[in-house]
Amino acid sequence: MWSPWQQIMASLFFFLLLFFLLTQNHLSLADQASYKNISIGTTLTPLTKPTSWLSPSGDFAFGFLPHPANTSLSLLAVWFDKIDNKTIVWCANGDAPVVAAESYNLTLSPDGRFSLKDPSGQEIWNPGVNKTSHAAILDTGNLVLSAADGEVLWQSFDHPTDTILPGQTLKQETQVFARLMDTDYTRGRFVLVLQGVDGNLVMYSVAFPTTMHYPEAYWATDITGPGVFQVVYNQSGSIDVYYNNTFHTIISTVVPGDHYHRATLDPDGIFRQQYKFPKNEPTTDSWLVKQTLASDICTKLVTGIGSGVCGINSYCTMGQDERVECLCPPHYSFIDNDRKYRGCKPNFAAQSCEPGGESSFDFQVVDNLDWPLADAEHYYPMNETECRINCLKDCFCAVTTYINGSCWKKKYPLSNGRFKTDVYLRTLIKYSTVLSSSAQPEEEGKLRDWRIWAIGGASLFLFGSVILNLAQFAARLSTRRKRTLVRTSSGMAGPALCSFTYKELEDATKGFSEELGRGAFGTVYKGTLASDPAGVLIAVKKLERMYELEAAEKDFMNEIHTIGLTHHKNLVRLLGFCKEATHRLLVYEFMSNGSLNKFLFGSDSPDWDQRIEIALGIARGLAYLHEECRTQIIHCDIKPQNILVDDNLVAKISDFGMAKLLRLEQTRTSTGIRGTIGYFAPEWFKNSAITAKVDVYSFGVLLLEIICCRKNLDWDYDFGSEVKPTLIECTKECYRTGRLNLLVEEDEEAKKDGMRLERFAMVGISCVQEEPWMRPSMKKVVQMLEGTIDVAVPPNMYSLHM
């Protein structure tokens, strides 16, 4: 506990820090207004140059900017000016852009009014203050109107649109509205508000086109109480709620000072902190997401009235780049493909309520898809056949769901659509067979074609992948020999690493006599540190082919940098290295149980609980490499042979020799094929850019192997296919048919733990999706495996009911 004196000093510190944050905008104005300001009589127009005013540094501009979706229109806005795509951070007329070819005038008039007028002189926007002496666009991105004595009369930071910036403070009752779409700056369907009544920072969905929000919040800090609340976006990148002399952090990420960053409430209702390139090296790359709030919006947002996250008759799922994607169920299509929030319409005529009207109707099965607030009737007990017939004969029944003897009939309009993941739900969507053949959504046809291709080409794929792997492996070795030698300025590769002589390691391994394993780039030997009184066991990896020093040096330094700067329970620890003449060796902690390959597929495989912990450990280690390291690391060769197991059965990821390191501003890298047959992600064969999602795919394969204690390419269950199925295909088939127990036939503990078995299988299937964007991040994989977030039905599974 703090002493009374410590408590007083802490309170004084927080008060001084808050005072600084709350006064910095005024101080910035005093410092900068004389340098760059907009004085009485100044006018801007979209027709004549200049069309904007710059901040002193030139980072921001205020004025007329061509509308991103229609260059014949202009927005009155503040934007990042040194960025090629001119990212807008504040907009005065998002719902009413002006015609760029007409003479609209933005003027600071002698009477102190700052206003935008149309060609007829009619005022169409003003900030609502008089006696303005001058205006300025500051280096913080804040547009400020000031009186002659320097008093701030109005500032854009107090009236945000969809973005907040470093240095910005939100007062109670301040609202941040998402724009309607990426290219439509109209106030949209979601709002973030610091409530005046209780100080809670809350996100709501909005009854568009009004600004009224529905009463059900889908995200909140739940920090409430009497007194004054404020949201503070620090220059370092963190975002805090300040209340009662305490900063409550809601976004903790620190962004490097040489990067631009912002936080936006995006059109999909998710709040994202984003950053972009070094300031002195602007590029056209997109903004990179650093941290998110309300990323589980699909499952958390449920409105008693309104359509939910997506439009009527549609459903919500997480799509590309972890953004919300609104989709139509089978036999439905979007009312407006450009404005999907308007919802979906059936591609068939409504069912007649006359006798026999049901004769041309049938059901499409899409497991676990639910519209929870569209229930019209609930029957119990009732079997599935009776449930189908009941909905079929009811002309008002659009969908029915069946679970454990319960039948739920659902009526139009269908709202709050999403996948239900806590229980297994059989969803039957009613449609007319008369028009179904010509009205199938384009996506379904594509998925059906993909399925036919996958089944017919499985043998060719496996054969081709073997040949391609061998060819690329040879090419990789050749390429590596030509790369430039990498050195650190100090000659050391990481903190607390020991430098060994070759003789020391030769003695420790008894002349490299006991081999533990062999890989593409070297052999691992067991050894004992003679210099250590406890006789600590070590594993020494001796890198081979050292006659090509340049290439080997690159591999050596990569592995040193990669492992030496990491520290995690589920990563093999690097103890030291040897860099002497042409000898390059790495010294690791010894793992008594060897590789997971031997441990998992041997005669005494681990029990179910042990396998669960092993899977979780590997997932946590990968999440650390992808998202928590100082430098992101893509392993590129996740397989059982590269997972080691210690005395306590803790799984640890090893062999970072193939890892590709990315700088903070990078998200993708192109390189030759790396990895092992059976664990390859499909993009290796498509000459596509490689992302961390290749590790997600490999982990998905490994997870299924851990579940079943069987290898992906060594599965002998007969599903009637002419092609021998892989473990991935068998898992999908077992999941679709509700026979997951076939995967663990001889494991009673796994079969008893049916809920977790299903969850792990669903996660595995989600990880091995064909398209990288459809796979979850490793952070989400960990959360789903732990059960802290729901697991959505693996994408594309419903198409296989056709």
UniProtKB/TrEMBL annotation:
<dbReference type="Pfam" id="PF01453">
    <property type="entry name" value="B_lectin"/>
</dbReference>
<keyword id="KW-0723">Serine/threonine-protein kinase</keyword>
<keyword id="KW-0472">Membrane</keyword>
<protein>
    <recommendedName>
        <fullName>Receptor-like serine/threonine-protein kinase</fullName>
        <ecNumber>2.7.11.1</ecNumber>
    </recommendedName>
</protein>
<keyword id="KW-0418">Kinase</keyword>
<dbReference type="GO" id="GO:0051707">
    <property type="term" value="P:response to other organism"/>
</dbReference>
<keyword id="KW-0547">Nucleotide-binding</keyword>
<dbReference type="InterPro" id="IPR011009">
    <property type="entry name" value="Kinase-like_dom_sf"/>
</dbReference>
<feature type="signal peptide">
    <location>
        <begin position="1"/>
        <end position="30"/>
    </location>
</feature>
<keyword id="KW-0732">Signal</keyword>
<dbReference type="InterPro" id="IPR036426">
    <property type="entry name" value="Bulb-type_lectin_dom_sf"/>
</dbReference>
<keyword id="KW-1015">Disulfide bond</keyword>
<dbReference type="InterPro" id="IPR051343">
    <property type="entry name" value="G-type_lectin_kinases/EP1-like"/>
</dbReference>
<dbReference type="InterPro" id="IPR008271">
    <property type="entry name" value="Ser/Thr_kinase_AS"/>
</dbReference>
<keyword id="KW-0245">EGF-like domain</keyword>
<keyword id="KW-0325">Glycoprotein</keyword>
<feature type="domain" description="Bulb-type lectin">
    <location>
        <begin position="38"/>
        <end position="158"/>
    </location>
</feature>
<dbReference type="InterPro" id="IPR001245">
    <property type="entry name" value="Ser-Thr/Tyr_kinase_cat_dom"/>
</dbReference>
<feature type="domain" description="Protein kinase">
    <location>
        <begin position="510"/>
        <end position="789"/>
    </location>
</feature>
<dbReference type="Pfam" id="PF07714">
    <property type="entry name" value="PK_Tyr_Ser-Thr"/>
</dbReference>
<keyword id="KW-1133">Transmembrane helix</keyword>
<keyword id="KW-0812">Transmembrane</keyword>
<keyword id="KW-0067">ATP-binding</keyword>
<keyword id="KW-0808">Transferase</keyword>
<dbReference type="InterPro" id="IPR001480">
    <property type="entry name" value="Bulb-type_lectin_dom"/>
</dbReference>
<dbReference type="GO" id="GO:0005524">
    <property type="term" value="F:ATP binding"/>
</dbReference>
<comment type="similarity">
    <text>Belongs to the protein kinase superfamily. Ser/Thr protein kinase family.</text>
</comment>
<keyword id="KW-0430">Lectin</keyword>
<dbReference type="GO" id="GO:0030246">
    <property type="term" value="F:carbohydrate binding"/>
</dbReference>
<dbReference type="InterPro" id="IPR024171">
    <property type="entry name" value="SRK-like_kinase"/>
</dbReference>
<dbReference type="InterPro" id="IPR000719">
    <property type="entry name" value="Prot_kinase_dom"/>
</dbReference>
<dbReference type="InterPro" id="IPR017441">
    <property type="entry name" value="Protein_kinase_ATP_BS"/>
</dbReference>
<feature type="transmembrane region" description="Helical">
    <location>
        <begin position="450"/>
        <end position="475"/>
    </location>
</feature>
<feature type="binding site">
    <location>
        <position position="542"/>
    </location>
    <ligand>
        <name>ATP</name>
    </ligand>
</feature>
<dbReference type="GO" id="GO:0004674">
    <property type="term" value="F:protein serine/threonine kinase activity"/>
</dbReference>
<keyword id="KW-0675">Receptor</keyword>
<dbReference type="GO" id="GO:0016020">
    <property type="term" value="C:membrane"/>
</dbReference>
